Every structure is written in structure tokens, then in C-alpha cells.
Amino acid sequence: MNKQKTKSKNIMDSMVVTGIALAAFYWVCESFMYFFLEPEANIIQHVLGPDKFQTWTRLLVLCIFVIFGSHFQYAFNKRRLADEALLQSEEKYRTILESIEEGYFEIDLDGNLTFFNDPLCKILGYSRNEMQGMSTRAFSTEDTIKKFDDIFEHLKNTGEPVNVTDYDAIRKNGKHVALELSASQLKNSEGRTIGIRGVLRDVSERKQAEEERRKLENQLQWAQKMESIGTLAGGIAHDFNNILMGIQGNASLILLKIDPSHPGYEKAKNIEKYVESGTELSKQLLGYARRGKYHMKATDLNDIIENSATLFGRTKKEIQIHKRLAEDIWTVEVDRGQIDQVLLNLYVNAWQAMPEGGDLYLETENIVLDHNFVKPYEVEPGNYVKISVADTGVGIDKENQERIFEPFFTTKEMGRGTGLGLASVYGIIKNHGGYINVYSEKDQGTIFTIYLPASEKDVDEAEALAVTILKGTGTVLLVDDEEMIIDVGKELLNELGYDVLFAKSGAEAIEVYKQKHKTIDLVIMDMIMPGIIGGEAYDRLKEINPDVKVLLSSGYSLNGQATHILRRGCNGFIQKPFNIKQLSYSIHNIIGKR
Ligand SMILES: Nc1ncnc2c1ncn2[C@@H]1O[C@H](COP(=O)(O)OP(=O)(O)OP(=O)(O)O)[C@@H](O)[C@H]1O
Ligand SMILES: [Mg+2]
Q1: N- to C-terminal Cα distance for the chain?
Q2: Quick one: which of 407, 387, 415, 282 has its CA closest to 326?
């Protein structure tokens, strides 16, 4: 405020001083003039004028000079102040323009830069000199040039400002930068359009973050979809296995009772074969449904790959198999049967993708995955064993790549593929705490990469499988809510030499066991039953007899629930459908060694 007052006072002072100075100058000049024109006049007459009229005229002119001088100074001051204000405001706006992050520019009607701020140079990576007069086309992509032409057109037609959210530009180093543009008309003082002014924002980081978020959301949605289809697939596989159990049991019984020369013998053998294919199918479904893993064993993956590749190579001579297996590979804890299933599915797919033959590359490697790497896959960072299965086949296009892990997605003709192969691969690997991804180029080939968490344990030795039927003696209590399973199970157990009691529910099993536990050697119990389920029934049986021997059976593979029961002391698990050999082996393992 004070500053303002002093300023106005200065202005006033300078106006008065100029007026007086001008008037004094005039007075002195006139006095000198009289000094020469009227030499006879005295000094007073020289200074005041020779007569009264002269004196008054001089006073009048003096006043006019004071007024004129003041006015001149006033106009001059005003102009100077306006210039100063203009300079200040220009300085202010320049500071604002240079301190913002956005790039500001003005271009003429030919698209050449006429004015811009330093942030624009920073965004585009050019120096100020290089950008002087540069055409916007120099840093625009084909697509952006077209957009810019549209903006020109729009501004010309409507005069309304335009916002463009995806404006792609090319930096001096050739890299693309994602920008947002707000543009409006640039007019001269007569209101004529002389170009465009605009603000460019670098939104690359935001776009990248958005892209990552979108990817994560898609992944989550995809995982949820897979999860719910998995539940459905698991349910179907469970019921399917129970039906297969009935068929398998009956076929086993027929085969036991008839001679190989009997005309029905081959037919019953065929039924067993069909049951086997059915079991394969439900195995895939269960693999996908992630219904547990059983027989987890610390394993050397190189051994599994060697064995499976040798077996596969023997049957598919047109495929050249190349192996590069890392030495000192870390141990992984896996269900060997399931990993075999994973590899076989990948080999078969590769073979089908190379109808004319080709190369199959199998590789293993120890790898440490950090937090950033595993983030999108919902797995823990740490030590992993990486397996790659690569082929030189037809490849998978981008669209199909997004769907290949979905159950029942197949591009193969009817009868050739069910679309469950990769779905089960996905489920099994997920269930082992690992993950799988795919990289493929159309007509170039496909690489599947699997990561399985490494384990600290030493490798377990392989287990011998039953080769013959092992008969035995004793009494077995068979518990299942399916009539068909009871019927067929009873007969199978009789054939194996056991006496059979049965119960159709958990409650009935507890009742029977209460009365006859002294004579019962083994309980074979279904996991899922209405009312009291297997787990609860097991605990009640254990209350009656802490040494009770129980073999759990289920149409599901060994899942979390069954694992809990096994941990509580339950003696074994058998998955339906089982044949008489597998059943005899499982029973023998529990009560045969008495
Ligand atoms: N190595 C590969 N090369 C080219 N395409 C592949 C490859 N592996 C999988 N695919 C594509 O993914 C689809 C799904 O594979 P998936 O193994 O799940 O089912 P499928 O092989 O069609 O049937 P199934 O395995 O049940 O017999 C295949 O139909 C095929 O189009
Ligand atoms: Mg397949």
C-alpha cells in the first residue's frame, strides 16, 4: 500500500517538476532574448518583461508551459508504468509456463511451432534450438498426424476446445510417449484464427499403471472363472468316477469268473479298456479341478522328463527330441503321476502341432524368482525349477492363447481332442504352488514354461507297483452311500477272500462298528456321504477303537479334507474307480502285513 502511495507521489512530483522546469527554461530563454533585443532595459525589466503586457503574457505562457510539461510527464509516466506492468505480467506467465510439467505450445496454420515452453522440449527430448519452428509432424506418428488434422478441422468448424486422451508422439530417441492434448484456437488481435495453442501432458506412467491394473483385474477374473469351472468339473468327475467304479467292478468280477476262452472274456476286457479311457478323462478333469494331489514325493524332475521323453520318443519316431537338462537340478515335491500327466499332455499337443514331424526341445533350469517376477501369478518368490517344452509346430494365435487353458477349449476336430489337456496341466501346476505360461508365434512354434517351487528334501526312491492280485483274509466293513459301489465292492472283496459287512451311511457305519468292531479288521469308507461325512465318521470310529484301520476311498483325488484325515492316523487312500488289483494292493498294505 505504502509502496503504491510513494509511487503516485513520485509521479505527481515528477509531473510538477517537469512543468516547472519547462516553464523556468522558457523564462530564462525569454529573459535572454530581451537582454539582446532591449539592451537599454535594466535587469528587472529583463527578468520580468519590459512592460506590464509583456509580463502578463510571459506569466500566461509560463502557466501554459507548466500545464503542458506536467501533462507530458503524466503521459510519459503512464506509458512507462504500462510497459513495466506488461513486462511483469509477461515474466509472470513465462515463469508459470516454465514451472508446470505440461508442455505448452503455439503453432501456425501450417503446423509449425511459433512458441513453446521448456517442459515441451523435455517431454519430446529435443533442445530449444532444435524445436524452434519445428513442424508438429516431426514428432507425430501416422495415427497422430491424422488426429491432429481432425483437431484442426474441428477447431476450424466449431471453434470449441478439443481434448484428446490418447495422443501418441515420438521422442527424439525414437521412443513413443503417451500424451494427452488440450487444444484451442489461437487468434490475433483482430479475431482472425492464426493457429492453435495447446497443452500436452505426458501420461505414460499413468497409462502403464492403468495397463498393469487392467491386466491384474483380467487375471483375477480369469482365475475366478477357472476356479468356478473347476468346481463344476470336479463334481462331474467325482460322480463319473463312481459310475466307472461300478462298471470296472463288474468287469473285474466277470473276468475273475470266466475262462479266457469264454466268448464274453474279450468283451469284458474291452469294458475295462473303456473304463481306463474314462478314468483318463476324469483324471484330466480332476487335475484341472485341482482336487488335491496325492503321493507327494521329493523328486528329481530330470528323471521324470528323461523317462517320459524316452517313452514318448519310442512311439513318435517323426519327432526329434532334444534335451538340455540342468545338472544339479533342485528337488521338487510333486505327485509324480500328475507331473507325468502334465508332460504327456504337452508332448501330445506338440506332436499334434507338428503333423509333418519336427523338433521338441525339453529343458530344465534352476531359477530364483523375485517378488516382481511372481507378482502376477499369485505364487511366492523363491527358488523354482523351470521346465520348458518347446516345439516347432503351427503355433497358437494371440486370440487362442488367451483361451487354451480353459477346459473344453479345443481347435481339434470332433473326436480328436476334448480340450482338457492344458486345463488339467494348468490345474495340476497351480495345485503344486507353481505356474505355467505360454509363448507362441503363428507358424513358428510354441514354448510352454512351467515353474515348480524347489524343495529342500532329498529325492524319494520310486515305489514298486502291485503286479498281481494279493488275496487275504479277515472282515471288511464297506461304507458307501452308492448302492452300486456296495454291490460291486462286496463281490470284489469276497473274491479277494474277505468277509464283508456294509453300511450305507456314516451313522450306520458307526452303529455296525460299535457292535462288531472286535471282528472287523478294516473299514473301507467313502469320503463324501450325506449326513455324517467320512472325516467325522472316522473320528467316531477312532473313539470306539483307537486302533481302527481305515482305507478312505473317493471319486475325488486326495484333497485337503482327505489329507487331514490321513494326518489324523487314517491308514490309506484309494481313488475310484479302482480295479481289483489296486484294491488288493491297498488292503494288503494296511492289514496284509499283520
Ligand atoms: N503345442 C501346441 N501348438 C499349437 N497349438 C497348441 C499347442 N498346445 C495346445 N494348443 C492349442 O490349444 C488347444 C487346447 O489344448 P488342450 O491340450 O487343452 O486340448 P486338445 O489338445 O485340443 O484336446 P485334449 O488334450 O483334451 O485331447 C488345442 O486344441 C490347440 O489348439
Ligand atoms: Mg491336448
Answers
A1: 109
A2: 387
> What confidence tens digit (pLDDT) does each residue in 152-195 have?
888 888 889 998 888 889 999 999 999 999 999 998 888 888 99
Looking at ligand 1, which atom is closest to the CA of residue 394? Answer: 4
Q: How do beta strands 445-455 and 331-335 pair? A: antiparallel
Of the ligands numbered here, which is closest to the C-alpha atom of 348? 2
Exposed (0-12), middle (13-18) or buried (19+): which is 488, by Cβ within 10 Å? Answer: buried
Helix H or strand E segment including 73? helix 52-99
Q: What is the DSSP letter of 591?
A: I
The per-residue DSSP string of 356-417 comes to T-EEEEEEEEEEEE-HHHHGGGT---EEEEEEEEEE-SS---HHHHTTTTSTT---SPTTT-
The verdict on the CB of residue 342 being under 6 Å from ligand 1 is no
Residue with C-alpha cell 509560463?
62
What CA–CA distance (Å, rounded) separates 569 from 556? 20
How many angstroms is it from 476 CA to the middle of ligand 2? 41
Residues 396/419, Cβ–Cβ less than 8 Å: no
Percentage of the chain surpassing pLDDT 90?
A: 37
Indicate if ligand 1 lies below 6 Å from the C-beta of 391.
yes
For ligand 1, say whether the CB of 123 is within 6 Å of any of its atoms.
no
Q: What is the reported pLDDT for 478?
A: 94
pLDDT of 293 > 60? The answer is no
Residue 390 CB–ligand 1 contact under 6 Å? no
Asked if pLDDT for residue 223 goes beyond 80, the answer is no
| pLDDT tops 70 at residue 337 | yes
Helix (H, G, I), strand (E, B) or coil at 261: coil
418 lines ligand 1 (CB under 6 A): yes
Q: What's at 341, amino acid-wise?
A: Q
Note the pLDDT of residue 6. 58
Residue by residue, DSSP assigns 491-517 as HHHHHTT-EEEEESSHHHHHHHHHHHT
User: pLDDT category, 294, cuts 50, 70, 90?
Assistant: low
| Residue 208: CA count within 13 A, CB half-sphere | 7
Ligand 1 atom closest to the Cα of residue 445 is 3
Q: How far is CA 345 from CA 184, 192, 352, 436, in A?
A: 60, 72, 11, 13
pTM across the whole model: 0.58
- Give the three-class secondary structure for 163: strand
Are the C-beta atoms of 568 and 560 separated by less than 8 Å? Answer: no
The pLDDT of residue 564 is 78
DSSP 556-574: S-S-HHHHHHHHTT--EEE
Q: How far is CA 235 from CA 294, 551, 554, 556, 567, in A?
A: 18, 22, 12, 8, 24
Output the nine-digit C-alpha cell for 380. Answer: 511366492
Centre of ligand 2 from the C-alpha of residue 348, in Å: 6
Candidate from 280-289, 300-309, 348-357, 429-438 with smallest mean pLDDT: 280-289
Q: Grid coordinates in use for 439?
A: 509363448
The ligand placed nearest to the CA atom of residue 391 is 1
Cα-only R_g, the chain: 47
